[in-house]
Amino acid sequence: MKRFLFYLLISFSLLSIVSCGDDEKGDDAPTTYTITFDTDGGSEVPAQNVVTMV
After folding, report:
1. Greatest C-alpha distance within the chain
2. Secondary structure (DSSP) of 1-54
3. For the chain, what are the domain ranges?
4. Residues of 21-36 as b/e, b for ≥16 C-beta within 10 angstroms?
5. pLDDT by 10s per residue, the chain, length 54
6. What distance in Å separates the CA atoms of residue 34 and residue 19, rounded to the nearest whole number?
7. pTM for this structure?
């Protein structure tokens, strides 16, 4: 009986872990971030654009 409960608990644990996966498949659009710099009175640094693939 203990073995049955152990396997039942393991199967429910694995099922809950698998069900928490990422639901959004195919959302591979790149995200663009613009980074600006505060030079505190120094020479100006142009803004940088960073593109990430999530």
Report:
1. 75
2. -HHHHHHHHHHHHHHHHHHTS---TT----EEEEE----TTS-----EEEEE--
3. 28-54
4. eeeeeeeeeeeeeeee
5. 889 999 899 998 888 887 776 666 666 788 899 999 998 888 999 999 999 876
6. 35
7. 0.41
Q: Give the amino acid at 46.
A: P
Query: What six digits make up the tokens of 47?
Result: 């803004």
What span, in angstroms and rounded, lies between the C-alpha atoms of 7 and 2? 9
Residues for the chain: how many in total?
A: 54
d(CA 7, CA 15): 12
Backbone phi and psi for residue 2, each to the nearest 5 degrees, phi listed first: -65, -40
